[in-house]
Amino acid sequence: MIDRSRLSALLARERAAYADLHPRSAAAYGRAGHLFGRVPMTWMNKTAAGFPIHFETAYGARVTDVDGREYVDFCLGDTGAMAGHAPAPVVEAVTRRLSERGGLATMLPTEEAAEVGAELARRFGVPQWSFTLTATDANRWAIRLLRAVTGRPRVLVNSYCYHGSVDESLIVVGPDGRARGREGNVGAPYDVTRTSRVAEYNDLDGLERELAHGDVAAVLMEPALTNIGIVLPEPGYLAGVRELTRRHGTYLVNDETHTFSAGPGGATAAWGLEPDVVTIGKAIGGGVPIGAYGLTGELAAALSGRSDLDLVDMGGVGGTLAGNPLSLTAARATLGEVLTDAAFARMVEVATGFAGGVRKIVEGYRLPWSVSQLGARVEYRFTAPAPRTGGESAAHADGELEDYLHAYLANRGILLTPFHNMALACPQTTHDDVARHHEVFAAALAELVG
Ligand code: PMP
Asked: Which of 79, 136, 231 best tests ligand 1's pocket when mutated (most atoms within 8 Å of CB)?
């Protein structure tokens, strides 16, 4: 369907155009010799055209760069800015907190922490909350707590999941059907197949087979996979996961960091799920670093009753700046005033327009691609029907095609998340923004296959 030599030529043309259009970003990259990889964090080198755009301002759904170019941003910090960039209520609350009350690292609680805990409990249905600085740490600490409370050593995740840089989660089902470490895992501390088990998403038989070993403390999962395209649950799958985890004495952790796009209480509330633990991060701070995990009352009581567990000092669950007033002020404003029920309704409507338009364009060119939506989040994959598992979705990755589309869009003022073909709507994303995307996307396909 796709002429590979045409694709290569178009990608080379778009990369050259990108270099011409972004001389200041290129120069800034060139000057950053004292940054490892020339970027503040090595993953920022995940870019379609050789170096990243260096941004100047970011408000709402708009980013401008150091070359004076403006973008409609559908990446939104890969969900970190799902509340829009620099949402006014968050900027105001954080600025006021700093100027009027000072102190960000006192090792003492502030009153708004309890309010944020109560709001998360209301939204996600689990009542006992604790804070971290990243979603990765929320997952790490949840895993420790569940190992402690069950006395079981292992964690089970879905193949091609992503839960942050959590050692136990970097495991996949290999081509032979057996578990193996995820390719490229940097300095793995041990063979992950000793600490973890893995099943394909939507595969209840595989899950049951792994849980039957009786050594799995927790299943850590996204209610829908979002980091290998969006893989949605088939009817009965999530109920089956809950039933199997209960039957095998395994706790269930819903990582809502991305699936929060499904609605104000994430997929947990939208789909009536009953996890034992909810973990989250990114968007709830409106861009300010925060993570959180929520426990059922039963689980919290079981942990508090264990005098052998050091939850207060150096027991392995902690972070000096976790629960700091900056994170919590930001989360209070984000949840209270920005990511409201009304905002979600608008975001989902805009995302639905995005998905429908992409579907139409793709069908117009008779491309065998699929479009999946999870509330405010949309993603297309280069295969149809939409993949049922992480493994299937991974098998249809096409880096060159993805780079072409990303570079083409960026050169014409549209940003997608660099890691996949994901588009997210924030409260300020408009139908006009979506229409602009569709115009450019259709032009990219016309040049490729028209
Ligand atoms: N969980 C999920 C589902 C994620 O997608 C991510 C990051 N993409 C994380 C956890 C980790 O978040 P962070 O990098 O903020 O720790």
From this structure: 136
> Structurally, how many domains does the chain consist of?
2
Taking the centre of ligand 1 as the mean of its atom positions, its distance from the CA of residue 164, in whole angstroms, is 4
- Share of the chain residues as helix, strand and coil, in percent rounded to the nearest 5: 45, 15, 40
Question: Rounded to the nearest whole angstrom, what is the distance from the C-alpha of residue 271 to the centroid of ligand 1?
Answer: 21
Is this complex scored with an ipTM above 0.95? yes
State the CB neighbour count (10 A cutoff) for residue 375.
23
CATH of the domain at 240: 3.40.640.10
Q: Whose CA is nearest to atom 10 of ligand 1?
A: 163
| Domain edge (last residue) among 285, 317, 338 | 338
Q: Judge if 302 and 428 occupy the same domain.
A: no
CATH of residue 21: 3.90.1150.10
Q: What is the arithmetic mean of pLDDT over 140-160?
A: 98
Judge whether residue 418 has pLDDT over 90: no
Q: Is the CB of 261 under 6 A from ligand 1?
A: no
Same domain for 96 and 224: yes
Closest by CA position to 407, among listed 41, 60, 24, 53 = 53
- Average of pLDDT values for 305-326? 95
Note whether 400 and 370 are same-domain residues. Answer: yes
Is residue 257 lining ligand 1, measured as CB closer than 6 Å?
yes
Atom of ligand 1 nearest to the CA of 259: 3
**Last residue within a domain, chosen from 306, 338, 370:** 338
Tokens describing residue 279: 């973990």
Q: Whose CA is nearest to atom 4 of ligand 1?
A: 163
164 pocket-lining for ligand 1 (C-beta < 6 Å): yes
Whether residue 420 is predicted with pLDDT greater than 90 in this model: the reply is no
Cα(159)–Cα(219) distance, integer angstroms:
12
Report CA(162)–ligand 1 centroid distance (Å). 7
Q: 306: domain range? A: 88-338
Distance (Å) from CA 194 to ligand 1 centroid: 23
1 has a pLDDT exceeding 90 = no
Tell me the pLDDT band of 391, cut-offs 50, 70 and 90.
Answer: very high
| pTM score, whole prediction | 0.98
Nearest alpha-carbon partner for 261 in 136, 186, 327, 346: 346
Rounded to whole angstroms, the Cα distance separating 310 from 241 reads: 31
Q: Does residue 131 share a domain with residue 17? A: no
Omega before 368 cis (within 30°)? no
**Is the CB of 227 inside a 6 Å radius of any atom of ligand 1?**
yes
Task: Using the predicted structure, report yes or no on whether residue 419 has a pLDDT greater than 90.
Answer: no
Helices (H), 253-340: 266-270, 297-304, 325-333
351 and 428 co-located in one domain: yes
If you average pLDDT over residues 297-301, what whole number do you get? 98
Q: 442 C-alpha to center of ligand 1: Å?
A: 31
> In terms of domains, do 355 and 372 share one?
yes
Indicate if 313 and 386 belong to the same structural domain.
no
- Do 351 and 222 fall within a single domain? no
Nearest CA to ligand 1 atom 14: 164
